[in-house]
Amino acid sequence: MGKCTVFSLFFVAVAYCYLASAFDPSPVQDFCVADPNCTVKVNGFACKNPMKVTADDFYFGGLHIAGNTTNAVGSRVTQVFAAQVPGLNTLGISLARLDYAPGGINPPHTHPRATELLTVIEGSLLVGFVTSNPENKLFTRVLQKGDVFVFPVGLVHFQFNAGKTNAVAIAGFNSQNPGAVVIRNAVFGSNPPINDDVLAKAFQADKTVIDQLQSKI
Ligand SMILES: *[C@@H]1O[C@H](CO)[C@@H](O)[C@H](O)[C@H]1NC(C)=O
Ligand SMILES: *[C@@H]1O[C@H](CO)[C@@H](O)[C@H](O)[C@H]1NC(C)=O
């Protein structure tokens, strides 16, 4: 075997390792129902004793109930992730219900571990995501009931209810625990706060503007 082949195999191996760890790992058993009480920390939750697993571990009720949108952004996300449904642990899939009051927004955010597949089941939404390469290109659309839109993993995206009635969407994710980084909260609402000199320089804005943004979160 020539050096090149060895190197190629090495890079193929590295590529596979990377792919295998970029998303939720594939299960190697029927299920691994989360045991939140287990003190052993693993990637995901440790498995509950399979003999103690019941149908309830795979169940979530009440997704027909609208989320409470009486809040500053006028939207609510009801998560159906592994934290809510222990049976989703290790399965690499989850979903959420999203409710939007008229004028409500699900503010710009990213899911570090999942692509999102969103379908509107009531009302209409203005949605969009911004790319990393080509840099900062916005892909945006208005969605009506029955329309589906994809938000690729890790990219900043949003949904806005520009209609006069409530809107409802269901989103699927290819992770049991997609995570959400809300840009506004991460940048202006971190704990402890990011130094306002840093933010003033980064946003080319006056420090009083930065302080005002920080105080709102
Ligand atoms: C975790 O511990 C609590 C308190 O002891 C108990 O009520 C609960 O059933 C336990 N959960 C599991 C999945 O064993
Ligand atoms: C919705 O949330 C608001 C603000 O927290 C609260 O005042 C109101 O009672 C809630 N409504 C319902 C139906 O739970």
TrEMBL record:
It is found in: Secreted, Extracellular space, Apoplast. Oxalate binds at N106, H111, E116. Disulfide bonds join C32-C47. It comes from the Eukaryota. The keyword Hydrolase does not apply. Residues 61-211 form the Cupin type-1 domain. One of its GO terms (molecular function) is manganese ion binding. Mn(2+) binds at H109, H111, E116, H157. Residues 1-22 form the signal peptide. Keywords: Apoplast, Disulfide bond, Manganese, Metal-binding, Secreted, Signal. One of its GO terms (cellular component) is apoplast. The keyword ATP-binding does not apply. InterPro entries: Cupin_1, Germin, Germin_Mn-BS, RmlC-like_jellyroll, RmlC_Cupin_sf. Belongs to the germin family. This is Germin-like protein. It comes from Coffea arabica. The gene is LOC113691912.
